[in-house]
Amino acid sequence: MPQLSERTQRFLTRYGEMASHWGLNRTECQIHGLLFLSPKPLDAEEISKTLSVARSHVSNSLKELQSWGIVKTVHVLGSRREYFECLPDVWEMMRTVVAEQKRREIDPWMRILKEAAADLDDGSPDGTYAKHRVQEMLGFFEVFSRWYEELRRLPTPMIRRFLALGGKAIGLLGLKG
Amino acid sequence: MPQLSERTQRFLTRYGEMASHWGLNRTECQIHGLLFLSPKPLDAEEISKTLSVARSHVSNSLKELQSWGIVKTVHVLGSRREYFECLPDVWEMMRTVVAEQKRREIDPWMRILKEAAADLDDGSPDGTYAKHRVQEMLGFFEVFSRWYEELRRLPTPMIRRFLALGGKAIGLLGLKG
DNA sequence: CTGTGCTTCCTGTAGCGACTGAAATATACA
DNA sequence: TGTATATTTCAGTCGCTACAGGAAGCACAG
């Protein structure tokens, strides 16, 4: 994929703009998008040329994408070069992204709340109230976090079936009472 | 809450830094944090002074918080002023935040993917492959989105019981086979 | 030990978004 | 109508982050 069609350019532009709210910057997202659409692995040089981004920047971005676990290196026989590809399975990819998001956003946030609950309570009425409020918020995250941690261990097909049930699960589980 | 204790300041600082990844900017988050910890509603003037933020900025930020639905206005008898408070129930608040996040991030993203799936396929093998990939990603979001839309209609206590089950739900639903 | 391919580090630049402060506008009551 | 209160709007400033591009470092093949 040396030259990009106009359509692909259009897509990568939006991909970069949109996904940059997800913890990666615009270029990193575009690189990922490029790999996502590419039928074969690409090397850093190609990526650099295709997206008109400095070679060093591509290198750093790829490192970041690898640290997220959504891009892997591939080696081709007879070439010293490293090639890159993104996870072939979309569900695997999304699971990875969600897991990283949790690790990088939710977990630190819960740590902050925990510390704050202890710290805010200075004995005054307002302090006690504040502590109480923070604990309420922490409670939400703990329930949610525990739920997620249990679900994430399950294999993808099971999750798919689970999600497909939607709200019906509630009825089936007898949670209406 | 005219003056902030050092502890509260510490908390609001972190609250602002952390939560600003969630679609609101730092000050908006701090204002929300302040209201969240406050036992009584506050007016814009107080907020401005307490956080040392320009009055106009507070005004705009409050509007934004209201548009998210996580801050409400309250009127006090005998005063023309508007007072502000955040949703009292934390679970209600988090549900609102999640709903807004979906509306502002996921839904547009799905629209982009839909358009791109049609656009990318120029008849070439690479184009066909790209379309296929985008559809895979779209598939993930559609399953997830449908699941969420069904769950969100249920009352909070039901959701809590549901989440509390964690991975056990899978077994109970007979999804292991 | 030398060239090649890649990564890491550093510096400078550009652009974006947050924020201020002031001016313009709107609303409520005396 | 005048005064006090609120919101809206906007120009200007500031800081942060992305990014380019070059220089040095590293690893390996010959």
Helix-strand layout with pairing:
2 copies of one chain form a homodimer.
Chain A lengths: L5 H14 L6 H12 L4 E2 H8 L3 H14 L2 E5 L6 E5 L3 H31 L4 H28 L3 H10 L2 H5 L5
Antiparallel strand pairs in A: 1-3, 2-3
The structure holds a DNA duplex (30 and 30 nucleotides).
Characterization of the model:
Two copies of one chain form a homodimer. Chain A is mainly alpha-helical and 177 residues long. The first copy, chain A, folds into two domains: 6-86, Arc Repressor Mutant, subunit A; 90-172. Chain A contains eight helices and three strands, in the order H-H-E-H-H-E-E-H-H-H-H. The first copy, chain A, has helices at 6-19, 26-37, 44-51, 55-68, 90-120, 125-152, 156-165, 168-172; strands at residues 42-43, 71-75, 82-86. A three-stranded antiparallel β-sheet of chain A has the order 1-3-2. In chain A, a hairpin with a 6-residue loop joins strand 2 (71-75) and strand 3. In chain A, helix 5 packs antiparallel against helix 6 (125-152). Chain A is extended. At the A-B interface, helix 1, helix 5, helix 6, helix 7 and helix 8 of A face helix 1, helix 5, helix 6, helix 7 and helix 8 of B. Chain A binds a DNA duplex (30 and 30 nucleotides) through helix 4.
